[in-house]
Design goal:
homodimer; about 260 residues; alpha+beta; 14 strands
């Protein structure tokens, strides 16, 4: 019922209030594309911040994605193959291939659906709109929103020192950044509900300004005129860290509550 | 504490009662091997019994594994590349490459640890012994037990007709088979706890007699003289069905209770 209400609300927003225009909405189909993931979100939530996979390796498996870096040194965003590190100063830095990641998700982005939107959609409205477009919540979707943003609130995480605190503690003091009338790209994934423990169920999006100078993990936004591209992804590949810390971390507990605190 | 007790108990069993002999126990290490999986266990529990992946495709991704067939037509067991269908008469049949599966897990088996055991270990003792051997419960293990079995209790599932019943209903009338003083192979996987919803956390083993004539999903056993081989597997690849039934199945509910009824 909740979903139906959200759908009706969004249909209304779409046709009446916002004047969105569908430029090319192909018939929904699944492509044999893969979401490649390093480690699990619950390991990251537990403070397992040092992985073994390099950004060079990551780039072999995708040109588009999000994640973080060893020591939790900032938010990762990969766009058109290039990997950016958005540190706790809110600035985006180029990343050498040798930099390692404890958690990341990437794919080779190839849009199945492209729609132009021209209204002031909030983050929640954008998510509900995508919910109403896609054929099922049981596969993965890579999501790219490019264009003008009336407002973006983002955060990054400060680099940690050992002994590492759990992520839910780290984000209590996270720096946040606000952008107004900025052009850029919002990108990330919509992940199925059964992926709880492995990835973030629902939406997880990062932002990068069009001059590749600033960005972060998106907490709120108001869209302007943007192009929404969605890549249907029906395969998932996960590599688990060959580290002693990953081997020892307790992954038997439900961390959904911690995840919600971290993602909001 | 429970795990510690189980460990101590097993160490005692190992050195005192059973006279197990370690022939070649290599230092634990992770190999870049992949557990390839079709669909999710929760989709199967929900009655999504018709997949699109063929056994021919499955064989490209592994030579060892377990699963089932479209219409829930028996238990799948793959050994040395060959795929067997153990139907509800308890007999094993050869499977053409064109046969499709709604759920299966396979890997290219390559033992990291090989141990000879010569005591009358029960199923639970075998599992607790493997628990005590492996370095972490956070990666996957492919498990092969070859040799003499004092006793095996196995089941298979009868082929279903549409509209499909959920698996928890099907297994209420499942045929079971008992084997005594039989040679054969017990094989399957130990899966991490965080895979709940996607696969069966813990142990999931099928059995095939050495003449490849009979077998089933293992419910209980007593080992004789056997060789235990374990393949450490730290990558996971899942392909989701491109079917309307998979798209529509509700995968938001926790099905752990149903799974326990099905697996016991």
């Amino acid at each position: 019922m909740k979903n139906l209400c959200a759908y009706c609300c969004l249909v209304g927003l779409y046709y009446v209030l916002l004047g969105c225009t569908s430029l090319s909405k192909e018939a929904p189909h699944q492509q044999d594309e893969v979401l490649y993931q390093v480690s699990t979100i619950d390991a990251l939530l537990s403070g397992d911040y040092d992985g073994t996979v390099t950004c060079g390796e990551l780039r072999q498996h995708g040109d588009f994605g999000i994640g973080t870096f060893n020591g939790l040194d900032g938010e990762m965003l990969q766009l058109d193959g290039e990997i950016f590190k958005i540190r706790s100063d809110g600035k985006a830095y180029a990343v050498p291939d040798s930099t390692r990641t404890p958690f990341a998700s990437v794919t080779h982005f190839s849009a199945d659906t492209v729609i132009e939107l021209s209204g002031r959609l909030s983050y929640e409205q954008l998510c509900a709109y995508i919910d109403s477009l896609v054929p099922t919540e049981n596969i993965f979707y890579a999501i790219k929103v490019e264009g003008e943003f009336a407002y973006v609130k983002a955060r990054s995480v400060p680099r940690q020192s050992k002994p590492y605190l759990p992520l839910v503690e780290v984000v209590k003091t996270q720096p946040t950044f606000e952008f107004e009338h900025e052009t850029g790209t919002l990108l990330g994934f919509r992940t199925p509900p059964y992926m709880k423990g492995l990835n973030v169920p629902g939406y997880h999006l990062h932002f990068l300004t069009s001059d590749h100078a600033r960005g972060g993990h998106v907490m709120a936004c108001t869209l302007g005129k943007v192009k929404l591209s969605i890549d249907y992804t029906s395969a998932f590949h996960m590599v688990l860290p060959a580290t002693g810390t990953f081997q020892r971390v307790d992954l038997t507990q439900d961390k959904q509550e911690e995840l919600e605190k971290v993602e909001k």
